[in-house]
Amino acid sequence: MNVAIYLPLLLALPLTLTAGWLAARGTPGLIARGLTGSAFVAAVSSTWSLVLLALTLLDDLPPLSALDDHPTLELPEPVPGPVALIAALLLAWGAVRLVRDIHLRTSTHRRLRAAGTPQDGLVVADWSAPLAVAVPGRPGHLLVTSGILRLLDTDERRVLFAHEHAHLAHRHHRLVALTGAAAALNPLLIPVRTTVAYLVERWADEDAAAVVGDRELTAKAVARAALATVGPGPKAALGMHGGAVVNRVRALIAPSPEPRRGRLLGPSLLVAGCLGATAVATAEFVALARAWL
């Protein structure tokens, strides 16, 4: 088994290094989808490589172990034992991380849905914390608090509802969940997960600006919600999750970005590289297994 089996483990690096550059220069929806698909393929490919590497440990178990010293057989050597063992440990670690990620998301959604019964797709909770979130489901609904409603004026509330409705309409939770799972399986993809979380907020910002017809008003609503969520406590009003707010406000003040599909050339080449390396590694493993069996 040659270098092809190791390539998928490293091809996530170019995606990680370029994710921020792509996010700053492309249409949020287009780049978010492209990065999510690329991260998913990279994670599956790297996991499959770990599976193939870990399976080579089987040659140390009977009856295959008896063939190692057979005087008349010249069997191809699999990967070194320590490499296969490390692959097995990484595979187990990734499985644990994935289960934790899924559990956290499902338990969070369960708690949000338990906050109240939607009326016309909306739950208003009498909480002082400024919170607004799109709760996925069939059907999904919006959860807002009295704290965020008191904070924003009538026009800014229109921005709020348009922003959260965009999350539901475009099923942003699926993109975030897929990149979260990809990062759990391959930690090199954690920056991609962060970038996609930022991009879906930018995507919802652009939709909200289009609905209300005022980019400056949208920027003002985003900035006001950011000021309200400084310090400890919930930061889910208009997607306020950290320092990316400044970049979002700047993007809203600037003209609306133009779609440029050429920006996805790099991720597309990475996907092709992952699939090609995975196919070669799988073929080599099958040839190795036939020789041993």
From TrEMBL:
Gene3D superfamilies for this protein: Metalloproteases ('zincins'), catalytic domain
Residue span, Peptidase M48 domain: 104-178
One Pfam family recorded for the sequence: Peptidase_M48
Keywords: Hydrolase, Membrane, Metal-binding, Metalloprotease, Protease, Transmembrane, Transmembrane helix, Zinc
GO terms for MF: metal ion binding; metalloendopeptidase activity
InterPro entries: Beta-lactam_resp_regulator, Peptidase_M48
GO process terms (BP): proteolysis
Keyword Transmembrane included in the entry's annotation: yes
TM annotation in the entry: 6-24, 36-58, 78-99, 269-292
Superkingdom in the source lineage: Bacteria
Cofactor binding remark: Binds 1 zinc ion per subunit.
Co-factor(s): Zn(2+)
Similarity comment: family membership: Belongs to the peptidase M48 family.
Protein name: Peptidase M48 domain-containing protein
Organism the protein comes from: Actinoplanes nipponensis
Upper taxonomic lineage: Bacteria, Bacillati, Actinomycetota, Actinomycetes, Micromonosporales
